Amino acid sequence: MLGMQGKYPVITLCGSTRFKDQFMEVQKKLTLEGKIVISVGLFGHSGDYEVWENMDEGTLTKTKEMLDDIHKRKIDMSDEIFVINVGGYIGDSTRSEIEYALAHGKKVRYLEEQK
């Protein structure tokens, strides 16, 4: 199934933002395969610290909730998700994104085979 974009499937990357290098690598690879790639907006676990450093606890919680919601909207726009599961690692946010994608009929692919 291809979305409104026609012949270019849309793929949202999911995974821990600590894997920034792998996100960039997969984004390039999929783009060269003719895919429209939607990635994360910032890498909170590997850079982008300035985003969080001056936030109070309440703002931090609200911001993280907003970012989770935005990522689910990205999944809504996609034909599939591609999970960056380096070393098999899948955190809680990513797990909930996988469940969301599956519940909405999206294909799920993984960087590393699931054991």
Automatic annotation (TrEMBL):
This is Uncharacterized protein. It comes from Butyrivibrio proteoclasticus (strain ATCC 51982 / DSM 14932 / B316).
